Amino acid sequence: MPVQQLFYSTAVPVSAQRHGDLSISTGKSYSFASKTNSIPVTALEFGPAASDHPIVFAGVGDDTVPAIIVGTRNDENLAVDQDGQWSGTYIPAFARRYPFIFSLDEEKNQFTLLLDEEYEGANREGRGERLFDSEGEQTVYLKSLLKFLQDYQAGFARTQSFCKRLVELDLLTPMQAQFTLPEGESRTLGGFQVIDREKLKALPGDTLSELCSKDELECIYLHLASLRHFRDMLNKATSIETAELDGDAVEQTGEPADDPEAAAIN
Predict the structure, then answer these.
(1) Domain count of the chain?
(2) How far apart are CA 60 and CA 192, in angstroms?
(3) Of all residues in the chain, what percent carry a pLDDT higher than 70?
(4) What is the pLDDT of residues 95-133, one digit of tens each?
(5) What is the four-CA torsion angle of 154, 160, 163, 167, rounded to 10 degrees?
(6) CB-based burial of residue 146 (10 Å sphere; 0-12 exposed, 13-18 middle, 19+ buried)?
């Protein structure tokens, strides 16, 4: 899952020279997210995100990030319907910020605002919100957008620290989700990690206290509670409310999926 490039096709720096007459019509369509089965979330989003989707951890080491799973196979997002409408109650900030994104210049320690010019809502006909006014100054819309992205980036940095802590404590373990559809088709979703409950229970009291003081223990419990949504995903995949899983919806394993058609989170 290439975290910073998900959804984006042609992201270029925003400037008054290039985008002085550009408007953004965001609308309500999330069709751009319809071909991904996982979307990154920050630790601050665990509360609302856990009410709809399983929260897992993707990547390894310093590249570990939390993400919600929204599909049972590659190129599937069950949260986006055929009309591009988001069907869940919570839309991740990662999706809400599209078509904009920050790019970090590590040498200058400076962020640059980028825009995906392939976004269908980008236009020069005045539809939606202008980025710059007639004098080339930032509009209120662009300023509010920058504030939103700055807050998101701060939350992402905090989330990186949280994930680093989980890795240091060796709390993450590989897991697979296995689904059996009513017609007998089996699907296996892998490539992610979850927190090992037994390792969590074995942590010393002072470590648990520290996790609690930083609100990280709350995030851990929200993550664990969210895993129940794996059972709900079968109903979404088949549109049959009475569908039942063949055994447990989630099976913990350290081995890769045997099914050659097994999906991995993007």
Answers:
(1) 1
(2) 9
(3) 86
(4) 999 999 998 877 777 889 999 999 999 999 999 999 999
(5) -150
(6) middle
